């Protein structure tokens, strides 16, 4: 062997070299083993991170709690390592975590924004001796864990925000009281919110897939035309009378907006709102106003309204004929005295002066002046129109032509035109407010109503827009919603632009599962124009009502059977009955039976006449008899008489005077005839008018 040729010293040297080589190989093997073990820890850490973060059943907090537990096992001294994760305001740590000088920290970021940190620490007094407390690979691992955790938190936040947004819109659609719908370009319904059940009794499944035409009844042709029209105008507001599933009619307002894609019309979306009650009130107002106007127009007398200085503000239609202004129109704003003969001015001034002193002399005779300067005999009776406190605001005069000439034919004016739809082509505002009445969601139309960009409206309190005195109303409605009640009320606001608006608000409360009140969904309809129109109609109705109630004669309306439908307050003075006692009763029940056949015979051809004038007797409540003069005109509808309107004037005193004059005339005649001397009486033409027997 080659060892035989070497010396002992050479062999020892080779052995020493071999020993060093073996030790180096052992060190390298240990280092490789250490490195492999560390990498194995990293792989285990990555695997466990992936397993934890892929579990869809646990929350972010639970992920952080589990991740912080696996971090120490991935470090070179796992038995001493402690870890901590901070996300936002929450911190998740291993049981013995304490911050020391042996610390390795890595920020956790989402979209480059720092949201927390991960920290690994070793205790100072327990750490084994080592040249490197933290390995470079551990810094890389901690960075990777922070990146994965940041990505996970960011993804979860996006998913949570998406779910919350989806839930918000879903809750909004399912909880607002009005119906949201969508159709294709053929008017077939592709979506409708559950509120359709409350509105018309149909379930969404019964409606979706069917055409809107199937639900609008007689309005189907109009709906088809409007559906074609919206493709050009893009937004429309319509009102239809639609039967519910049970057949009950409902007035529904359609607020519709066209849907386009790449310039092509693909359908319509919008809301359905029940305005049945609003329509009912509107029609009742129109009916009431029309009744008073019809009664006033049917009167054969002229009614003047003047201000307190005596200037004419309004006249009934009969003034044109009575005063001869058929061609020029009656001159408004002229003094009442322009229509009274100069010689009667002092008497007229005295009568008005006594009215202001609380003395009402009743009907007084004057000489009237017509447009052409000719005169006629008239009778006028005055009264005040008063405000709610009883203070005079205007004067009203009833003037009657008492000359021998036949009263001119009076044509009834057509009823005042019906009000058109108040809100035109404006979609309703939809929004959600939290429990503090702060907007958390609004649509574009709400911004339009409040005159502020819809995005800027979010985060703003509803109280910032309330008109004075409206805060208490809103707080009362909020308390009502907290009890689980939906509500519908009117609200006055001042927009961001400083404009006052009246809104119809319908709201539905929202609660947590535990019953805590969260806020409310609402629909805002701008009713400003409708509000102003209704106030004007109310004022007109009130004016006509006060006119009718201030006239001394009884004004009445009966149906075709003679049943009393309306009677003015003056019935108390003439017949002694209250209004409630005569309404619904037959008018012939109050007339002296012997006069009834004559009256019925006179009224047979009333439908072909303009007026019917008669004098007959009424039985007062106390049993006494009163003579009245009636002026009656037929109420015609579709060519058929459906009733009559007229006035009753108490002429008892005149009839008594006529009877007394007749009795005196008969007495004088008998005396002359029975005188012993011959008597001959001549008239103005010297014709013999009376002789006695001698």
Notes on the protein architecture:
With 694 residues, the protein is of the alpha+beta class. Helix content is 35%, strand content 29%. It has 17 helices and 26 strands. The strands form six sheets. The protein has a five-stranded antiparallel β-sheet with strand order 6-5-9-8-7, with helices on both faces. A hairpin with a 2-residue loop joins strand 23 and strand 24. Helix 1 runs antiparallel to helix 2, helix 1 packs parallel to helix 3 (136-175) and helix 7 (276-298) runs parallel beside helix 13. It is rod-shaped and about 205 Å long. The N and C termini lie far apart (208 Å).
What fraction strand?
25-35%
Distance between the termini: 208 Å
Biggest β-sheet, characterized?
Answer: 5 strands, antiparallel
**What's the arrangement of strands in the largest beta sheet?**
6-5-9-8-7
Rg over alpha carbons:
48 Å
Number of helices: 17
What is the number of E strands? 26
Apparent shape: rod-shaped
Estimated helix fraction = 25-40%
What structural class is derived from the secondary structure elements? alpha+beta
Mean pLDDT: 79
Write a brief caption for the model:
With 694 residues, the chain is α+β, with helices and mostly antiparallel strands. The chain has 17 helices and 26 strands.
Can you tag this structure with a few keywords?
694 residues; 5-stranded antiparallel beta sheet; 29% strand
Question: What's the SSE blueprint?
Answer:
Layout (H helix, E strand, L loop, with lengths): L7 H46 L6 H11 L11 E6 L2 E4 L8 E9 L2 E10 L13 H40 L3 E6 L4 E4 L2 H6 L3 H4 L12 H14 L1 E9 L5 E13 L2 E11 L1 H23 L3 E5 L5 E4 L2 H5 L22 H12 L7 E6 L5 E12 L5 E10 L27 E6 L4 E4 L1 H7 L3 H4 L13 H12 L4 E8 L5 E12 L5 E10 L1 H23 L3 E6 L4 E4 L3 H5 L3 H4 L13 H8 L8 E8 L5 E13 L2 E11 L1 H22 L6 E3 L5 E4 L3
Antiparallel strand pairs: 1-2, 1-4, 3-4, 5-6, 5-9, 7-8, 8-9, 10-11, 10-14, 12-13, 13-14, 15-16, 15-19, 17-18, 18-19, 20-21, 20-24, 22-23, 23-24, 25-26
Helix pairs in contact: 1-2, 1-3, 7-13
């Amino acid at each position: 062997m080659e060892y035989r040729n070497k010396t002992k010293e050479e062999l020892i040297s080779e052995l020493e070299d071999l020993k060093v080589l073996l030790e180096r190989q052992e060190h390298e093997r240990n280092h490789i083993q250490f490195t492999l073990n560390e990498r194995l820890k990293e792989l285990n850490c990555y695997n466990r991170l992936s397993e934890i973060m892929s579990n869809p059943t646990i929350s972010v907090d639970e992920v952080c709690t589990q991740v912080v537990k696996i971090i120490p096992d991935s470090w070179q001294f796992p038995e001493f390592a402690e870890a901590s994760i901070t996300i936002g305001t929450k911190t998740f740590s291993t049981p013995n975590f304490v911050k020391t000088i042996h610390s390795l920290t890595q920020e956790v970021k989402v979209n480059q924004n720092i949201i927390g940190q991960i920290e690994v620490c070793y205790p100072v007094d327990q750490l084994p001796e080592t040249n490197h407390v933290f390995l470079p690979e551990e810094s890389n691992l901690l960075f990777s864990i922070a990146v994965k955790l940041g990505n996970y938190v960011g993804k979860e936040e996006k998913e949570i925000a998406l779910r919350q947004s989806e839930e918000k819109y879903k809750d909004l659609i399912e909880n607002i009281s009005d119906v949201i719908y969508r159709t294709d370009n053929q008017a077939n319904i592709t979506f409708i919110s559950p509120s359709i059940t409350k509105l018309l009794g149909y379930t969404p499944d019964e409606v979706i897939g069917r055409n809107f035409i199937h639900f609008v009844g007689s309005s189907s042709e109009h709906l088809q035309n409007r559906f074609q029209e919206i493709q050009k105008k893009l937004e429309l507001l319509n009102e239809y009378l639609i039967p519910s599933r049970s057949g009950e009619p409902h007035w529904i307002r359609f607020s519709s907006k066209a849907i386009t894609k790449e310039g092509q019309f693909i359908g319509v979306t919008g809301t359905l709102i029940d305005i049945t009650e609003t329509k009912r009130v509107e029609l009742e107002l129109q009916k009431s106003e029309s009744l008073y106007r019809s009664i006033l127009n049917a009167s054969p007398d002229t009614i003047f309204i003047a201000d307190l200085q005596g200037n004419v503000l309004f006249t009934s239609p009969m003034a044109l004929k009575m005063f001869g202004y058929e061609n020029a129109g009656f001159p408004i704003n002229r003094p009442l005295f322009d229509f009274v003969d100069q010689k009667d001015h002092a008497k007229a001034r005295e009568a008005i002066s006594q009215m202001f002193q609380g003395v009402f002399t009743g009907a007084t005779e004057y000489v009237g002046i017509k447009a052409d300067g000719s005169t006629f005999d008239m009778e006028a009776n005055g009264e005040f129109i008063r405000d709610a406190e009883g203070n005079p605001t205007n004067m009203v005069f009833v003037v009657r032509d008492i000359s021998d000439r036949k009263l001119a034919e009076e044509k009834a004016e057509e009823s005042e035109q019906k009000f058109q739809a108040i809100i035109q082509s404006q979609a309703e505002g939809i929004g959600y407010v939290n429990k503090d009445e702060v907007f958390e969601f609004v649509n574009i139309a709400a911004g339009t109503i409040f005159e502020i960009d819809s995005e800027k409206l979010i985060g703003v309190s509803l109280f910032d827009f309330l008109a004075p005195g409206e805060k208490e109303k809103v707080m009362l409605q909020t308390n009502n919603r907290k009890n689980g009640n939906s509500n519908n009320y009117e609200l006055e606001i001042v927009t961001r632009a400083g404009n006052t608006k009246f809104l119809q608000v319908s709201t539905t409360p929202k609660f947590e599962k535990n019953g805590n009140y969260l806020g409310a969904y609402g629909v805002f309809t701008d009713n400003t124009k409708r509000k102003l129109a209704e106030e004007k109609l109310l004022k007109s109705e009130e004016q006509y009502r006060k006119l009718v109630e201030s006239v001394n004669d009884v004004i009445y309306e009966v149906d075709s059977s003679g049943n009393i439908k309306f009677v003015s307050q003056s019935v108390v003075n003439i017949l002694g009955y209250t209004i409630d006692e005569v309404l619904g009763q037959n008018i012939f029940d109050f007339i002296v039976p012997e006069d009834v056949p004559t009256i019925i015979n006179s009224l047979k051809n009333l439908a072909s006449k303009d007026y019917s004038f008669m004098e007959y007797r009424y039985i007062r409540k106390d049993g006494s008899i009163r003579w009245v003069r009636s002026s009656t005109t037929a109420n015609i509808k579709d060519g058929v008489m459906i009733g009559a309107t007229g006035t009753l004037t108490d002429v008892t005193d005149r009839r008594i005077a006529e009877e007394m004059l007749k009795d005196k005339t008969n007495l004088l005649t008998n005396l002359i005839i029975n005188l012993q001397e011959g008597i001959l009486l001549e008239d103005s033409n010297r014709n013999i008018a009376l002789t006695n027997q001698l």
